[in-house]
Amino acid sequence: MSTRVLVVDNILVNLTFLEAKFSMEHYEVLTAGSGIEALETIQNGPPDIVLLDVMMPAFSDQLERVAGLEIGAHDVLTKPVHNLALFVRLRSLLRLKLLLDEFRLREETSCQMNILGGVENRDELMHSKRVLFVGEDPSEDELIAKIFDENIYLGTLSDSTEAM
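The structure assignment produced for this chain is given below.
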């Protein structure tokens, strides 16, 4: 199954361009010209990732990034977006999504099999545990850290050979 990408932009030329770009990389591309249209598309079947064009009146690229992250975005790119940066960040976010999906599936399966016996038992099991996250993108570290509480030691590495 290919990755579903929803591209939301109110400029038709941008939508067409991004649709062609993602299709060439073998993504299943959905498009929406407005927020309402995007929500309708998501209700019909959620995509793996949403690229949303947002006009932000910040004063610099750094302020725009911070503002976007503060309102809940997992990453923020500023225009003009370079192909390499776009696809590297997209792959990074998709890896994170796969990891989170796996965590959710494992927790759901464990609850169905009555292995963890509920949230309290899970918290007890995870108390004072160590987690090592290996990823190339430092922003992923922060996202992973938000998943775990303060009772878990989270180590991060950017190179998997260091983990050996």
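Interim note for the steering committee: Residues 83-112 form the longest helix (30 residues). The mean pLDDT is 76.
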